[in-house]
Amino acid sequence: MTGGRWRVGLAARLLAALALVVGVGGLTAWLVAGAVGPVIFHDHMAQAGLGTSPAALVHAEAAFGSASALALGIALATSVLASLAVSLFLARRIAGSLQTLSTAARRIAGGSLDARVASPQMGTEFDTLAESFNEMASRLQAGDALRRRLLADVAHEVRTPVAILDAYLEALEDGVETLEPQTIQVLRTQGSRLTRLADDLAAVSHAEQGDLDLARQTVAPATLLEAARAAAADRFAAKGVELRTEVGAGLPPVDVDVDRMGQVLGNLVDNALRHTPAGGSVTLRADHGPDAAVRLSVSDTGEGIDPEQLEHVFERFYRVDTARDRRHGGSGIGLAIVRALVTAHGGTAHAHSRGVGTGTTFEVVLPAATRH
């Protein structure tokens, strides 16, 4: 019903607009034919020597007036019919395209995010509208898929520690287990895992929503690398992995939130440590990036990543190897936090690897400080 009313209304408006144009044109032609035409006709008759007989002249002028009125009437009638036909044609084409768009919008509102519309081929404006609608629908569909996957992954991540906690509590209630230091450590570890998961989810959500309060300060890249190295030195020594830093010459400072950037580098260093075996090495490097930017990178000699998976590693809960990452204790959110925090600083994050067994390099490119 809504579509029908819209089509009638659109046709009526187009017809009214065209009728107005036809009416103005007809009125102008009538005024010209009635006021100017007879005078010009009379002058031509006189110049031709045909105006000597008043009766003949009156008859000729009457014939001219009748012919002009008939021609004007036929022209107006034809114009009105043409206007009506054009109005109906355009109205049906436009209303049909809008009806298709409206139907697709209702499908999306009802949850069918795969709805798309074809290009109506009615001009650039309508084609652009269809393309914009399809792009919007694609983004909604991608966002919904991410939301569904996020909920499923969160449920999966929470299920394991909760199951362990529940099993130990039940064993304690039944007297099968006693509250010994080892049992307490297991409970504390699983509780810490849940806490870390909640903290990581909160961090990445705040960063992606852009509501982080960044306490920016101008700092040298070398200072950031040294802080990250010092924080991880003991863990690297315990595993037998070498951790070193390399700083290029003449690097400009960067304006960053030191704590947040420490979180970025800390996540990258922890990720490298998890996937680098004993005897390997991890290098923290700072050098000149593109467009006078500063590039911070963390390179390891570890397991490496299939190039086809590189574009996904910054997604929430994405794991190159699910079993391997859970065994190493990763929550699957660390790299998502890295990308979100770097983006909040106006930078970009990238991952590079030539394949499995060749190591991986994570790069963070930050704009140089505007004031040194």
Low-confidence stretches: 1-8
Q: Give the C-level CATH assignment of the largest domain.
A: Alpha Beta
How much of the sequence is in beta strands? 5-15%
Order of helices and strands: HHHHEHEEHEEHHEE
Number of domains: 3
Nearest-angstrom radius of gyration? 39 Å
Overall geometry: elongated
Decide which structural class fits the backbone: alpha+beta
Number of discrete helical segments: 8
Order of neighbouring strands in the sheet with most strands = 2-4-5-7-6
What is the CATH architecture term of the largest domain?
2-Layer Sandwich
Main sheet: strands, sense, barrel: 5 strands, mixed
Strand elements, count: 7
CATH topology of the largest domain: Heat Shock Protein 90
- The end-to-end span amounts to 66 Å
In a few lines, what is going on in this structure?
The protein has 372 residues and is of the alpha+beta class. It is built from 8 helices and 7 strands, in the order ααααβαββαββααββ.
